[in-house]
UniProtKB/TrEMBL annotation:
GO terms for cellular component: cytoplasm. InterPro entries: Trp_synth_b_CS, Trp_synth_beta, Trp_synth_beta/beta-like, TrpB-like_PALP, TrpB-like_PALP_sf. This is Tryptophan synthase beta chain. It comes from Ulvibacter litoralis. The gene is trpB. Its EC number is 4.2.1.20. It comes from the Bacteria.
């Protein structure tokens, strides 16, 4: 069985490109060119150099000694929190901005919910001197003022989406509308392994640098490139896709995807798509998504903005359906405690998204000589207010 996208962008029964006809030329131009562009030597040189000099890669693979002692197993943290801008998202936006330049695009659009992807996009647009328009729900603009300020400082225009629930899905609709109106000069930077083919495959390839580095670094530290487990949180699924990528076809390496259970999987306030989702189409891709019996998308909930998404990308839907990855879910409370635990044990303040991945050590037992790699997708600076309120700091 293959766990990568086929030529039509399918992962098993999931994926594809379910788009309005008006969007076809834009997506088709990207689909027809992305692999050839990514294989160009000059593209790879520029991409690798920016990852090194600008993002600060390779990020360390850090042996977490005190955390390992607590759970009586060998835990390594892949430190994506040390990337420029504070999370893995920039690996993808660097790749896509280079792609946009190769395709002669001069204008960049993006949608953002909590603002993390908007900031990562505004960052690379500033780096390359390209115009940047970020669509964001009106309510999210109010809730995420610091990220809105960051985007403005970086030179982006933030356009409020005023329709519907005035959140991420409405911002996505606005971005798609913009792209349809500007097919020639504009590239749409999607922030996770979601959207119509070729986005999930392209984003997974850009993020695969994470598992490539893990292989090399683990060989240096342990004399073998394969850990026993790789663990990552899943919102749309891009940091998990990057951490899993090189191990997809190595069954000895167990993959664990951690979703946000919010206030409890069956509380009505959750984002645990693998448990609650059914097959449907969201953002141009056939995948698992949370929906009402008549197919309306259900509003998801998680304390962490990055996991607050009603679907998962098609690669993850397939990893779940095929059993290749184990899917676990973690509540707000479990994640918050695991986050604080990492602060006290290792001196690292994690993003609340990443704290979900860390929380599974309380439930799942590992053997003392198991090598467990946790992808620490981001740092907790952006979550300080949530930590302050939650713990009464
Ligand atoms: C956005 C974000 C996520 C969730 O996105 P994925 O595409 O699932 O990786 C996870 N962690 C952090 C720190 C994020 O900013």
């Amino acid at each position: 069985m293959s766990y990568n996208a086929d030529e039509m962008g399918y992962y098993g029964e999931f994926g594809g490109a379910y788009i309005p006809e008006m969007l076809y030329p834009n997506v088709e131009e990207l689909r027809a060119n992305y692999l050839a562009v990514m294989q160009e030597e000059s593209f790879q040189e520029e991409f690798q150099q920016l990852l090194k000099e600008y993002v600060g890669r390779p990020t360390p693979l850090y042996f977490a000694k005190r955390l390992s002692e607590k759970y009586n197993t060998k835990i390594y943290l892949k430190r994506e929190d040390l990337c420029h801008t504070g999370a893995h998202k920039v690996n993808n936006t660097i790749g896509q901005i280079l792609m946009a330049k190769r395709l002669n695009k001069t204008r960049i659009i993006a949608e953002t919910g909590a603002g993390q992807h908007g900031v990562a996009t505004a960052t690379v647009c500033a780096l390359m001197g390209l115009e940047c328009i970020v669509y964001m729900g009106e309510i999210d603009i109010e809730r995420q003022a610091p990220n809105v300020a960051r985007m403005k400082m970086l030179g982006a225009t933030v356009v409020p989406a005023m329709s519907g629930s005035k959140t991420l899905k409405d911002a996505t609709n606005e971005a798609i509308r913009d792209w349809i109106s500007n097919p020639v000069d504009t590239h749409y930077i999607i922030g996770s392994v979601v959207g119509p083919h070729p986005y999930p495959d392209m984003v997974a390839r850009f993020q695969s640098v994470i598992s490539k580095e893990i292989k090399t670094q683990l060989t240096e530290k342990e004399g073998r490139s394969n850990p026993d487990y790789v663990i990552a949180c899943v919102g749309g699924g891009s940091n998990a896709a990057g951490a899993f990528y090189e191990y997809l076809d190595i069954p000895e390496v167990s993959l664990i995807a951690v979703e946000a259970a919010g206030k409890g999987v069956h509380s009505g306030e959750s984002a645990a798509t693998s448990v609650l989702g059914k097959v449907g189409v969201i953002h141009g891709s056939k995948t698992l998504l949370m929906q009402t019996p008549d197919g309306q998308i259900t509003e998801p909930y998680s304390i962490s903005a990055g996991l607050d998404y009603p679907g998962v990308g098609p690669m993850h839907a397939h990893l779940f359906a095929s059993g290749r990855a184990e899917f676990l879910s973690v509540t707000d409370d479990e994640a918050m405690l695991a986050g604080l635990d990492l602060c006290k044990l290792e001196g690292i303040i994690p993003a609340i998204e990443s704290s979900h991945a860390l929380a599974i050590f309380n439930d799942k037992k590992f053997k003392p000589d198991d090598i467990v790699v946790v992808n620490l997708s981001g740092r907790g600076d952006k979550d300080l207010n949530t930590y302050i309120t939650y713990f009464n700091l």
